[in-house]
Amino acid sequence: MPFQIANKRQVGLSLTLSLFLGCFLAYGFVPLSYRLFSWVLGPVNQLGFPLLALIFFVSLPDLPCAVFSRLSTKRLLTLCVLPIVISAGFGATKNVPLEFSSSSNLLWKQVTWAWLIGPLGEELLFRGWLTSILNRLNKNTFLAIAPLFPLTLWGSAIAFSLWHIQNYEHGQLPFLIFQLGYTFFVGIWLGVVKWQTGKLWPCFLAHLLLNLAADWKLWFML
Known about the structure:
The chain has 222 residues and is mainly alpha-helical. Helix content is 70%, strand content 2%. The protein has one domain (4-221). The chain has helices at 8-41, 48-58, 73-79, 81-93, 98-102, 104-137, 151-163, 173-197, 201-214; strands at residues 4-5, 141-142. It has a two-stranded parallel ribbon. It is globular.
């Protein structure tokens, strides 16, 4: 497949779009999904998030992107190790809310969101729908920095990072800054998995493993 190095206009357009969509989705997508499907899903309206993300995903089929040297499955699996170790270390610093210990419903709701609904919806949204948009704007266009990744991959990682600003709580700015930086590199990693495999399910599996590691303390409360 032919490829090109991005020019300044392509970089500016893609990054501006990624910044806008990352912030816009952070503050609007989850509440919108709840409202749209609450009358159908009732008490399990959390499922509205992956359901709406699925609608976005299937509305815009993805385009293949050129791969210079496809990584083996073994190599892709080794790429999972460092993010998961970092995530587990981060999980060690997280405090489990006291209300989880007194309410099994709250605990299972959090576990279901963190280990299944969240990863599924986010992969459909960022490595699926948004990646497809950026691929259409910049088909086989690469950013001229090492390593040579597609411009689409960088854009989706930025949007994925900004998606997490919805987690901000008053007085927790240092945590938010850490999370934005961490999720940017996670977005790069998951983008590499999508780029190398051309499939979304390995990204979901990798994301699931990451969240399992980050919330490992919940395992002991189930």
